[in-house]
Amino acid sequence: MKPEQIAEILIIASRAFDAAMRRLNPIALAEIRKSLLVHLDPLQEARRFMSDDGLDGGDQKVRAGLLLACDFLQHAIRNFADEEDLQAAYISALRAARKHCRALSALYPLCGTFPEVDRYFLEPGVDAPLPPPDKSYEGETGMTHVGLSGHPHERGGYSLYIPENYTPDHTWPLVVALHGGYSHGRDFVWTWLAEARSRGFVVFAPTSQAMTWSIANVDFDGELLSRHLEQLCSRVHIDRSRILLTGMSDGGTFALALGLSGSCAYPAIAPVSSALPPVDLHCVKGKRILWVHGAQDWIFPAKRTVQSCRYLLQAGADIKLEMIEDLSHAYPREANAVILDWFGISPIR
To answer: Using CA atoms, how far apart are residues 169 and 171, in angstroms rounded to an integer?
Structure first.
């Protein structure tokens, strides 16, 4: 079996896992799990070839990346909703998603080796990443993870993606992406990578200090986030007039809490599958908001979201609601393009 065949098997399984998370709904977990399990046999066969030195060609770094991605993907699929109790099954699906993100971390360095992997980390219809800059940049680009004490998994840090074609000759848009409750910026950053590589913007994915964002005390996480953001702006040439604040679930709720505070300078907010926190409506006037929500959301009912948008509109917000009929409480990756088009980060080609 050739390395490119292994890579193709991994990408097919990874796309299937993406589709599973898009469909995530407690009542459909058994059906979703069944659709994933069919990918185990090809993954196991690929793993056997690599373990038995049956992999034809390729250097050791490539081999190690493929092995790691294969192991994480198998773990993710085997443990997806592998519980009888519905609540426990849902939690196990979320935990499985973290293993999928580890697989993506192993696959991403292989973009330059396998075209199929490269295309996976690009928007649909985009065949190649943005071309390199005319002038070389000696600073660090690509994906980095920062912990408060140097440990990349520690809470309170952040994950950062700087496009490989970055140059400080001009300013760059920034997407601040806030993870959902009990998640991590190290995982959520992958939600925006394909668009960042395709359109050319920086992704900053901080991690809450506790297991979810300090919605009731915005300053607790907000002040640390602001310090991280200032450090980023001192390192990367960010266009401060083009900073988008977005987030999923609790992350979207915290984005609203932070973005609608009187002292906040974020020009646009895009909550996804979120709820309206207690906010001072006197600070809402003129704020640009695109709210993306699922009509089938079982945690934050759609009717409540519609009413919240009415409150914000009456208070003077420039708000648009994008209701997705088949979406439950999950992240719709296809909405990234809608959000970016609304914000004004257009496809380069």
So the answer is: 7
The CA-based diameter of the chain, rounded to the nearest angstrom, is 66
Residue 79's closest CA among 98, 91, 93? 93
Residue of 57, 81, 80, 52 lying closest to 7 (CA atoms)? 57
Looking at the DSSP assignment, which residues form a beta bridge with residue 323? 293
Residue 228 has pLDDT above 70, yes or no: yes
Query: Chain-wide mean pLDDT for the chain?
Result: 93
Do 269 and 259 touch, CB atoms closer than 8 A?
yes
| Beta bridge pairs of residue 145 | 159
Q: How far apart are CA 5 and CA 240, in angstroms?
A: 44
**pLDDT-based confidence at residue 60 (cuts at 50, 70, 90):** confident
pLDDT digits (tens, 9 = 90+) for 297-327: 999 999 999 999 999 999 999 999 999 999 9
| pLDDT > 90? residue 22 | yes
**Average pLDDT, stretch 91-97?**
97
What is the rounded radius of gyration, in angstroms, for the C-alpha atoms of the chain?
20
Written as one letter, the residue type at 130 is L
Q: Which residue has the tokens 């759609």?
A: 302
Q: What is the pTM of this model?
A: 0.95
Q: Parallel, antiparallel, or unpaired: how do β-strands 172-178 and 202-206 relate? A: parallel
Burial class (CB in 10 A: 0-12, 13-18, 19+), 208: buried
Distance CA 321, CA 209 (A): 30
Q: What are 267-279's pLDDT values in tens digits?
A: 899 999 999 999 8
Question: pLDDT tens-digit profile of 194-223?
Answer: 999 999 999 999 999 999 999 999 999 999
